[in-house]
Records
---
Amino acid sequence: MSTTENSPASPQEPDSSRAAHRGRPLQTEFNDGRDYPRLGSFSFRRGTLTDNQENTWDENWPHLGRVLDENSVTADDQVIDLDDWFGRTGHDTIVEIGSGTGTSTAAMAPLETDHNIVAVEIYRPGLAKLLGSVVRGGITNIRMVKGDGVEVLQRMFAPGSLAGVRVYFPDPWPKARHHKRRIIQTGTLHLIASRLKPGGILHVATDHADYAEWIDELVNVEDDLEYLGWPDDPAVRDETVPVLTDRQIITKFEGKGLDKEHVIREYLWRRR
Ligand SMILES: C[S@@+](CC[C@H](N)C(=O)[O-])C[C@H]1O[C@@H](n2cnc3c(N)ncnc32)[C@H](O)[C@@H]1O
């Protein structure tokens, strides 16, 4: 999860009120004995968009984007009708949590046009960048959701509805007292498993050695996820893995990690 401390983003306010305010985001109480990322009290600040981005946003967000409804009275009823949103039926959907500026999202989508791609992000300027790429590139198979990925998965996607979930270079939360904020936890893995359809793929990548150790401890913790490891050559398409796993273009944060000579670790699981 993100704060101003180690992320490019601080969570953004709902679109209905773009003014800065302070608050605690909506958090489902799962009460299932598993660990879920715990968010503290957040400082919500306005993201700066250029005039051009604001215009592109106003024109295109209404049909290409959604905002998680955080109103506790109405938040329970917001499962997305994917066929309706993408305007086509019979296509598998992949959700990317924490798409940042969406460089790899926009690079991959044209190579997987048979898939619906939903990018989930809390950072409005990142979504605005991706929206710009989508509009300029005429990319038709990307939609975007602004909101906390855990709440979005829980509230906006039906159980067993996804062919893939991607988490690329999640915020590492390096301090021990912040580890509970890491998005990869027993509860998140369980939630992701529940949203994947049988055979669906979870793909996680990190350049952070300590986070990799954390994930290593969790690879077999969720009974519904079969851990597949990572192929020796990720560019060679594994026909048993039905979604694209080669990011095509390194993500912004992958690039930052590589500049520091970090080792990239990747993880694949398949929904049983
Ligand atoms: C380190 S960046 C990586 C961005 C991108 N995947 C990349 O590789 O360039 C992590 C991103 O996750 C987003 N993020 C953090 N917690 C999130 C959450 N709970 N739901 C959605 N996005 C989140 C942050 O805003 C940030 O853009």
---
Amino acid sequence: MGCGCNKNKNPEFRKEENPEDLKTVLSKKLGMVQSFASALASRGLSNNKVNKATKQLRVLSCFGNQHLGGELPPCEYLKNSTTEGKHFCGGCGCGDKPHTWLMAENDSYGKLDYPKLNCPLQMPGFTNYEQSKPDEANDPVTRRYYIENIDYNKVMEIPVSLPEKQETTPQTQPPQS
Ligand code: SF4
């Protein structure tokens, strides 16, 4: 299994979690909504935002890099919004709403810009990230393991924009689904 060398353009990736674990994670929908509420709180009145490298890691975790010529497919929980070109996380229970889009409209503040943000799969770049377990290195490797071992230059190549700080009042209501 390569790590960004593109020898095999369509490698197989293991599902991130065993189904029982994931079912447990998804059943904690309220917990994830609370996590997002915490993310909203972390934004603060000055629109604090994540740094560029962390956002690049988050984009890689959610969107993969096949659209950039790489071999990592998108996360299995990445969902297309009914709004063309927008995406949301189908694993956290927040639904398809403008404030839950991972990348916002016109480079404004999106969900991936929150400094504190949890991922149901605890992927790299997120606040609750956990290092892959040793067995995740066995073929087929997990996406998490793959990202942990990717050439860092490939992460740095991921195009992201960072919204300017605005002095607007942040949304304080957790998303309802
Ligand atoms: S937040 Fe996590 S589970 Fe959701 S789409 Fe991104 S990587 Fe996947």
